[in-house]
Design brief:
There is one protein chain. Helices cover 40% and strands 14% of the residues. The protein is an alpha/beta fold and 369 residues long. It has 2 domains: 149 residues, 3-Layer(aba) Sandwich (Rossmann fold); 181 residues, Rossmann fold (3-Layer(aba) Sandwich), CATH 3.40.50. It binds thiamine diphosphate. Thiamine diphosphate binds next to helix 9, helix 11 and strand 9.
């Protein structure tokens, strides 16, 4: 017998539970209000409210790397917020299921919903995402079940590490010889004697610094999806609560994901630490000043978001303190390391996100998929 129209969110939620979905990330939406309420009330589900929908792409990638299956709930206007970050799903081919309630279609009262509503399916397809529609309550159960089956099939293709190539000349500008910590020494110190530590790096220089300290099966390097390093770290931290997780990123990358600090502040994973290598510059793109050069304090944002500890670090004692706290899982913690704005030779990590995905999953003891 078909479910009455008002019950479809209940049907949706029980379908997710049966399929072993264990985490639900969402930006609140009236259409999903009932499913969100059910998820919040279910003890076996970790719910993660987001400040913006793209955080959910990074979060679910990290959660899945760590062995936790999830879905992302949003309304149609949230799809527009996800576009750049969908590069992460497209490149690494993570199982990603987004359940979108539609606005801007039949009998819409608010015309501001119409542009994004009309662009949802085409823009998702352009980013390599398959789309299906539930037109009636009866469609919901088979559609969600089918979509979960397709996304869980994953991909088992194994690859060797692809050799990346520099896409431009080293050194667009000569950096000024300011004072500051040596960024490579900071990263080496943080990773010294690592034991079970999982590392996620933001695009550009922080990835090169981490690679320069030695490649590792438990390293996951981002080459895009700017602003997502912290959310990938959050997913891993919640999925692997017994392991320390370290995000190493730049001031520019973290500034693009400031909302993620609020999302992490709500979850408060003790095993998550964020190391921001703050050269007060966008190093990768030519050393333009970032907002931290004008005095914006990312550590104070983290503190205001409820992190267990947050610090601005200018000396070796501060580096050692951060290393101790991350190893002891005293987080969530965030350290802003004030590093010199140097332009060091690039040490390029593997660029193939599928290879990196399989490598990390295997190192954590999971089937590759
Ligand atoms: C959405 C998006 N906007 C802009 C860029 C261009 N971009 C690539 S790296 C980068 C700067 C990274 O700066 P930061 O995180 O501070 O690292 P640094 O190299 O300075 O250590 C920018 C702006 C991008 N990749 N994606």
């Amino acid at each position: 017998m078909s479910a009455p129209a008002t019950d479809w969110p209940d049907v949706l939620f029980s379908t997710l539970l049966e399929a072993d979905v264990r985490t639900v990330a969402y930006v609140p939406d009236a259409g999903h209000a009932r499913a969100i309420e059910l998820a919040e009330a279910e003890a076996s589900i970790t719910t993660v409210p987001l400040t913006t929908e793209e955080e959910g792409i990074g979060y679910l990638a990290g959660a899945w790397l760590g062995g936790l299956r999830g879905v992302l709930l949003m309304q149609s206007s949230g799809v527009g917020n996800c576009i750049n970050t969908l590069a992460l799903a497209a490149q690494a081919r993570f199982p990603l299921l987004m359940l979108v309630t539609m606005r801007g279609e039949w009998a819409e009262q608010n015309p501001w919903q119409n542009p994004a509503g009309g662009a949802v399916e085409q823009s998702l397809r352009l980013m390599g995402v398959r789309t299906w529609r539930a037109e009636s309550a009866d469609d919901v159960e088979p559609l969600v079940r089918g979509a979960l089956a397709m996304t869980s099939a994953g991909d088992n293709e194994r690859r060797g590490p692809a050799r990346p190539a520099l896409d431009r000349e080293q050194g667009l500008v000569t950096p000024p010889a300011d004072e500051g910590l040596d960024r490579r020494a900071v990263v080496r110190a943080l990773l010294d004697g690592r034991d079970g530590l999982v590392v996620v790096t933001g695009l550009g220089s922080p990835s090169y610094d981490t690679m320069a300290a030695g490649d590792h099966d438990l390293n996951y390097y981002l080459w895009g999806a700017m602003g997502s390093a912290a959310t990938v770290g959050l997913g891993l931290a919640l999925a692997q609560p017994e392991r320390p997780v370290l995000v190493i990123t730049g001031d520019g990358e973290q500034l693009m994901g400031l909302g993620a600090l609020a999302t992490i502040g709500v979850q408060r994973p003790a095993n998550l630490t964020i190391a921001v290598l703050d050269n007060e510059r966008y190093g990768e793109t030519g050393m333009q000043h970032s907002h931290t050069a004008a005095g914006v304090r990312i550590d104070q944002v983290a503190a205001a978001c409820g992190f267990a500890w947050a610090a601005e670090v200018r000396d070796d004692a501060g580096v050692e303190d951060a290393r101790r706290r991350l190893t002891a899982c005293e987080g969530p913690g965030l350290a802003v390391f004030k590093v010199a704005p140097t332009d060091l030779p690039r040490v390029l990590p593997p660029i193939d996100a599928v290879y990196l995905k399989h490598r990390l999953r295997l190192a954590l003891g999971f089937a590759p998929r």
